[in-house]
Specification:
396 residues, alpha/beta, seven-stranded mixed sheet, 16 helices, globular
């Protein structure tokens, strides 16, 4: 049932439900993982035949296999891992100055589970992107922003950047790194604190033919200095990871050190906007309610981030809300993904162990607050700042 049930239920209305929830953007599909297939009791031959049939009807088989891999990973979690995930929400009780026992180890516990929960929907990359185009879905908006970001940091989308080294901080499962390597031809180095995500990133890169253009390693970006020489990278970026930074100024100084003169860095993250009023109880309550959903420890105004960047020596080239459109908000994308996880929640309620429902309910808390905060312009997860290290770009 698990193998047939999910695609069958989603494709009842001539695949329209499926297409509503599944990313239609072209992907290079990695081979199915044997361990996942065996756990559901099906042979590789049977899976290949079924996936070929689904592909014939224009079903995104990459997203389907990703969801099955996520289900398999969640099924095999032990009670200790689940308990640690639930306990990791102590991270979001205030910022790092709140000494309630929070630690970087809890970040690993949190993402060890969250990355699989996100893969059940369309947020395998674990970020709600800027709203770029209302005619396409969330995953396609991610791709649109990422291409823009690549150009913002001086890369071309022609695959001819094989002489460039690029650093991604907080790379997660490595999907943005892989996209960057595929689109630009650059060699991308990804750093992340969670060993399970790095293992996933390496496997995906090998399966998609990008193993020779990516390099993933387990490391916290709070562990300074980075294991790279001065003036090494031609470009760098981070996507919604820096709320875990213990010392932003020190981190930006380290990024400055490893970038070549003239190289650029793109920052996309959760920040407070000018409409937020410190001391306004309604505003402060909304932000407190939202941060666990965002996985945000540190919540700062964008000007505070700019100050840390300037102190590190960077020149700010761009500082703006990256979402496009009349309102410049992410709400439509948030609502779409909320609907996606609604079916996941319903499915888990009737067909999956109780722990799935518990984890999904924990993840779902604060979604309406996210939409409200976005509409009131109190904060955003799609604020982009592009920096440049002064000096002429060195030839590599």
């Amino acid at each position: 049932f698990f193998f047939f049930g999910l695609p069958f239920v989603e494709s009842l209305d001539i695949c329209s439900l499926y297409r509503r929830f599944i990313d239609q953007t072209p992907f290079i599909m990695p081979p199915p993982e044997p361990a996942t297939l065996k756990s559901f009791g099906f042979s590789g031959f049977f899976l290949t035949a079924l996936l070929s049939s689904l592909s014939y009807f224009n079903v995104d088989t990459y997203r389907l296999t990703t969801r099955f891999n996520a289900l398999q990973s969640l099924f095999t979690l032990n009670q200790t891992e689940i308990d640690r995930f639930m306990a990791s929400y102590a991270l979001f009780d205030g910022d790092w100055s709140n000494d309630n026992g929070k630690s970087e180890a809890q970040i690993v516990d949190y993402y060890h589970v969250l990355n699989h929960l996100c893969a059940l929907g369309n947020v395998e990359k674990m970020y709600i992107p800027p709203f770029m185009d209302g005619s396409v879905n969330l995953a396609a908006n991610q791709e649109l922003f990422e291409r823009k970001m690549m150009e913002d940091i001086g890369l071309t989308l022609d695959g001819n950047n094989d002489d460039k080294n690029v650093l991604e901080l907080g790379c997660g499962r490595g999907r943005i790194s892989a996209h960057t390597a595929r689109e630009t031809g650059a060699h991308v180095f990804g750093m992340n604190i969670d060993p399970s995500q790095i293992a996933n990133a390496k496997s995906y890169a090998e399966h998609t033919g990008l193993g020779n253009r990516t390099d993933f390693r387990v490391q916290s970006f709070n562990d300074l200095p980075f294991p790279f020489p001065d003036n090494y990278f031609d470009a760098s970026y981070q996507v919604q990871a820096f709320s875990y930074a213990l010392d932003k100024e020190a981190l930006f100084k380290e990024i400055y050190r490893v970038l070549k003169p003239g190289a650029k860095f793109s920052y996309l993250d959760w920040v407070l906007l000018d409409a937020f009023e410190p001391g306004n109880k309604e505003h402060e309550k909304a932000i407190r309610h939202l941060t666990p959903l965002l996985g945000a420890v540190d919540t700062v105004h964008y000007k505070e981030v700019e100050d840390a960047m300037k102190k590190a020596g960077f020149k700010i080239l761009l500082s703006e809300e990256a979402s496009r459109g009349e309102k410049g908000i992410q709400g439509p994308l948030i609502q779409t993904e909320r609907e996606t996880f609604a079916w996941v929640g319903t499915f888990s309620k009737y067909f999956l162990p109780k722990r799935f429902t518990m984890m999904l309910e924990r993840m779902d808390e604060g979604v309406q607050t996210f939409i409200d905060v976005d509409e009131m312009r109190l904060g955003t997860t799609s604020y982009q700042i592009v920096l440049e290290k002064p000096g002429a770009q060195c030839d590599a």
